[in-house]
Amino acid sequence: MDKTLKHSEKELVALKEEINSMWQLVLSQLQKCKLAYLTGNVELAHEVVIREKSVDSFELSVDTGCENYMALFSPVAMDLRLIISLIKISTTLERIADFANGIAKHVIEDNSIASEAMKEDLKIESMFDAVISMLSDSFVALESENTKIAGKILQRDEEIDSLYEEGKNYLAEHIQKEPSKGQCILDTFLTLRKIERIGDHCCNIVEEIVFYIDAKVLKHSRSKSTSTRTESNESEGE
Questions:
Q1: pTM above 0.85, yes or no
Q2: How far apart are CA 138 and CA 144, in angstroms?
Q3: How far apart are CA 52 and CA 40, in angstroms?
Q4: Separation between Cα atoms, residue 32 and residue 38, nearest integer Å
């Protein structure tokens, strides 16, 4: 029995290390995506696209490991909550990477990236910084098994939503003034939307961490402005 317990503990440690590696890769993807978009660095954008396959491999590995753990050890209580959360977190990380990949493709394929002035007006760098901070702080929360910063992370998503709404209104006015730049404005809006969705997914990760550590369900307790969007919008990450 002791040997089984020790083996199960080793497997849990291995799963945590796997999700940590995936997390760091996705965080790196997001940071590189930000830099590629803000500077127009096509080479860096290509790197983001190429590394997307590594993120997909991590997701499959984590899912398989969690499924095997459940089948072999029949976890209960906190261990079961951890396994369930890891499965959901790996899926969410993969979706965040999808959005980063989508933004990188805009840099590669489009000749209509927003001007420096428009990027500044839309505060796109601030939006990128906010989601990167959310993802980074969520990693710390899971590593330290401390949910005290959960509220701060969720609050940051409200700031992103506010910037997104302001940006949407700005672009709506801009396209009326300069309809010839319609494609550029549409592409810029899609980028804003992707960043906003990354913020939503970071909130989903926080919810899973709180579920694992505190055994509390936040999914339907947050305000409408920060609630999870429906999955019908997932195609925007393509």
A1: yes
A2: 10
A3: 19
A4: 10
Residue 60 has pLDDT above 50, yes or no: yes
Domains in the chain, number = 1
Q: Which two tokens stand for residue 1?
A: 């029995």
> Could you tell me the CATH number of the domain that includes residue 210?
1.20.58.220
Q: Which residue has the tokens 């007006």?
A: 121
For residues 122 and 119, give the distance between their C-alpha atoms in angstroms, rounded to a whole number. 5
b (16+ CB within 10 A) / e for 34-66: bebbbeeeeebbebbbebbeebeebbebbeebb
Handedness of CA 177, 181, 187, 188 (dihedral sign): negative
How far is Cα 31 from Cα 34, in angstroms, rounded to an integer?
Answer: 5
Q: How many CA atoms lie within 13 A of 73 on its CB side?
A: 23
Enclosing domain of residue 33: 2-237
Residue reference for tokens 């980074």: 136
d(CA 238, CA 222): 28
Spatial separation of the C-alpha atoms in residues 67 and 84, rounded to whole Å: 9
CA angle 62, 141, 45 (to 5 degrees): 60
Tell me the pLDDT tens digit for each residue of 69-105.
Answer: 999 999 999 999 999 999 999 999 999 999 999 999 9
pLDDT beyond 80 at 209: yes
Burial class (CB in 10 A: 0-12, 13-18, 19+), 19: buried
**Phi, psi (rounded to 5 degrees) for 89:** -65, -40
Asked if pLDDT for residue 28 goes beyond 50, the answer is yes
Extract the tokens encoding 159: 């700031």
* Residues 105, 157: Cα–Cα separation, whole Å: 24
